Amino acid sequence: MRMTRVRLCMAEIRLRGPEAELENPTLVEGLPGVGLVGKIATDHLIEHLDMRYYASVHCAGLPRIGIYRGGERGVKPPVRLYVSEARDLFALRSDAPISAAAVEDIADCLTNWIVEQDVTPIYLSGLPADLDDEESRDLYGIATGDGEERLEEADIAVPPEDGVITGPTGALINSAARDDIDSLGLVVECNPQFPDPRAASVLLEEGIEPLAELEVDVEELVTSAEEIRAKREQLAQQMQAIAQEESSQAQPLRMYQ
Questions:
Q1: Which fold has domain 11-256?
Q2: Which of 143, 129, 104, 106 lies closest to 37, judged by CA?
Q3: Distance, CA of 173 to CA of 177 (rounded, Å)
Q4: Cα 218 to Cα 136: distance, rounded to the nearest angstrom
Q5: Quick one: which of 9, 11, 30, 204 has the fewest CB in 10 Å?
Q6: What single-letter DSSP state applies at residue 86?
Q7: Rounded to 5 degrees, what are φ and ψ at 49?
Q8: Which UniProt keywords apply (predicted)?
Q9: pLDDT truncated to tens, each residue of the chain (257 aa)?
Q10: In angstroms, rounded to a whole number, what is the distance separating the alpha carbons of residues 91 and 206?
Q11: pTM (predicted TM-score)
Q12: CB 69 within 8 A of CB 229
């Protein structure tokens, strides 16, 4: 397998195969955060669309661990990019929590790659709410640069109150706002105590599908919620061990006033 290294800001994004040729690519970001909503949605997207392992991401502060799957011998780094040329789509996947030490580096190196590749990112975050499994989850959209028009076209609601997004996803949105880069942010209500597949299905069906012009079957996320929750429980516990301000999540702005 050919491997190409792209050096960015004291970090590397290493291609693990042929370079993708996309016209107007979108990136779906799935770094672990509250409720694991972004990770569950992105993992489902990668598997459902059979996306190709495209590149590994190496930034200061990321855990130096190897990831392997049951029934497979191959080992991969914890943070990776996947691609679907047919759908003009990238997806960012992480199988480990992102610590505070890595936030600035990963935001800078990924933002530089996003600009170089002319990619429009969709950033995903959970908004902690007191919900049971059967209650509906509300979805809100935010944007930087000229991203608001796409949210309007997709009929995604405006947030009803002031808020702030923390952690790695917050750092990525901050970088986009600082440099006036077009980006989209989806904020979904979720259960903050456990992995929330139902909230992930809302992200996919009501947000990512219309924004990226995709069709994704989310029935499995709802019908297999307990199984998915059990599989993600260990990562959720690792996330809870990280200080609250380090974890990606949306919060009312009044918490910072």
A1: Rossmann fold (3.40.50)
A2: 129
A3: 6
A4: 15
A5: 9
A6: G
A7: -95, 0
A8: Coiled coil
A9: 334 444 444 458 999 989 999 999 999 999 988 889 999 999 999 999 999 999 999 887 788 889 888 888 989 999 999 999 999 999 999 988 888 878 888 899 899 999 999 999 999 999 999 887 778 999 999 999 999 999 999 999 999 999 999 999 999 999 999 999 999 999 999 988 888 999 999 999 999 999 999 999 998 887 877 777 677 676 666 665 554 445 678 777 655 44
A10: 18
A11: 0.88
A12: no
Distance CA 37, CA 192 (A): 10
Q: Amino acid letter at 83?
A: V
Q: In 3-state terms, what secondary structure has residue 231?
A: helix
Q: Which residue has the tokens 């409720």?
A: 35
Length of the chain: 257
- Letter for the amino acid at 231? K
Give the separation between CA 191 and CA 197, rounded to whole angstroms. 10
